Amino acid sequence: MCNIKVIRATVEDLKYADSISKLIDDAAKSKNSGLAHRTPEYIKQKITEGKAVIALAGDEIAGFCYIATWQDNQFISHSGLIVNPKFRGQGLAKTIKKECFNLSRDKYPNAKIFGLTTSLAVMRINTSLGYQAVTFSELTNDEEFWKGCETCANFDILQRTKRFNCLCTGMIFYPNKNC
């Protein structure tokens, strides 16, 4: 990971939004994963709100992740974790995720932090941060969160099972149990 800096994104990083959106879309297609489409506008919003972490190799995007708040900041989700294929296999996803976790704890120390993933690597990273695998009923019931799943290739499963099941695994960090 030499020459890659992992930082909390600022308005100076808005110029990377198109590249990040494309990187997420390309990964979703190539892996047939549960990654949902995120527009450059949405990514810019997260950066502007101070809710994003970016990894840069010079001026090249190496990775990204963002947070979103739900139910009056009771729940925080981490989404859009992506690493540019050129920079995979170096532990960059773990570094990005850890910085995103720290950002969440700094901004919302009492919130439950959760995510959905089909990635074994992300499950391992989450576990190392103190997350537990849970049923979807433990996650936010905010309809806006679940609407974000609509652009995922597996959305039909989620819909068919009335949000009880999917190919994703729900994972959550309970701040009061892990302090």
Explained architecture:
This protein has 179 residues and is of the alpha+beta class. It is 36% helix and 25% strand. The protein has helices at 17-31, 40-48, 92-107, 120-128, 143-147, 155-160, 175-178, and strands spanning 4-8, 52-57, 60-70, 75-83, 112-117, 132-134, 169-173. A seven-stranded mixed β-sheet has the order 1-2-3-4-5-7-6, with helices on both faces. β3 and β4 (75-83) form a beta hairpin. α1 (17-31) packs across α2.
C-alpha-based Rg, rounded: 15 Å
Low-confidence stretches: none
Shape: globular
* Number of separate strands: 7
Number of helices: 7
Largest sheet: 7 strands, mixed
Biggest sheet: strand arrangement: 1-2-3-4-5-7-6
Based on secondary structure, the structural category is alpha+beta
Whole-number mean pLDDT: 88
Estimate the strand proportion.
Answer: 25-35%
Instruction: Tell me the series of helices and strands, N- to C-terminal.
Output: EHHEEEHEHEHHEH
Distance between the termini: 30 Å
Binned, the helix content reads: 25-40%
Short description:
With 179 residues, this protein is of the alpha+beta class. The protein contains 7 helices and 7 strands.
Topology:
Elements: E1 4-8, H1 17-31, H2 40-48, E2 52-57, E3 60-70, E4 75-83, H3 92-107, E5 112-117, H4 120-128, E6 132-134, H5 143-147, H6 155-160, E7 169-173, H7 175-178
Parallel strand pairs: 4-5
Antiparallel strand pairs: 1-2, 2-3, 3-4, 5-7, 6-7
Helix pairs in contact: 1-2
Descriptors:
single chain, 179 residues, alpha+beta, 7 helices, 36% helix, 25% strand
